Amino acid sequence: MNSRLRGRTIEDARTQILAEINERRSEIDELSARVIEAGLASWAGEDARDRTLIVRGRANLLEDLKAAEDLERIRLLFDDLETRSDVLQLLDLAKAGEGVRIFIGAENKLFSLSGSSLVLAPFMNSRQRVVGVIGVIGPTRLNYARIVPMVDYTAKLVGRILG
């Protein structure tokens, strides 16, 4: 993330990630339309955000390699979309929070399977705008009494340096 978002404010990063999410959704819609048109899948569910793509005639997929490729691309796009949405949620939570925020394991989908925790603190410029977030990723049984003050102090120091 650092290489892609370096030099941007949280709001700029958020805007970029939202644009990428919209691009992925458009790709999903386009690919889904093709497999639905081929009669190999259909949408289930009323709400566009909670729809499920139901694949039919899996045996036919072996005959139509293009459809199988489209379905695999859709799966990858859904995974990518979910990851970007999770990152966006983290950015929003970090930006909205004053002081240190702690996300333990299952509270965050990005780290739920790894048994990790995330300790975040936003840092601000001289106009009191959040311009970044500093954090530590560690095991769930992290020494919070030691890490939380360090993250808080570092965020405040970075904010002062940025002025």
Could you name the key traits of this structure?
alpha+beta, 2 domains, two-stranded antiparallel ribbon, 5 strands
Summary, kept brief:
The protein is an alpha+beta fold. It is built from 5 helices and 5 strands; from the N terminus they run ααββααβββα.
Shape: elongated
Q: Write down the domain tally.
A: 2
Radius of gyration based on Cα positions? 20 Å
Strand content: 15-25%
The number of helical elements comes to 5
Q: Overall pLDDT, averaged?
A: 75
Instruction: List the helices and strands in order.
Output: HHEEHHEEEH
The helix/strand class is alpha+beta
Termini separation comes to 24 Å
Instruction: Walk across the major sheet and give the strand order.
Output: 3-4-5
Largest sheet: 3 strands, antiparallel
Name the poorly predicted regions: none
How many individual β-strands? 5
Question: What proportion of the residues is helical, as a percent range?
Answer: 40-55%
How would you describe this protein?
With 163 residues, the chain is α+β, with helices and mostly antiparallel strands. It has 2 domains: 91 residues; 65 residues, no CATH class. The chain has a 3-stranded antiparallel β-sheet, with helices on both faces. Helix 2 runs antiparallel to helix 4. The chain is elongated and about 60 Å long.
Please write out the topology.
Layout: H1 2-5, H2 10-37, E1 41-44, E2 52-55, H3 58-63, H4 65-96, E3 101-104, E4 116-124, E5 130-139, H5 144-162
Antiparallel strand pairs: 1-2, 3-4, 4-5
Helix pairs in contact: 2-4
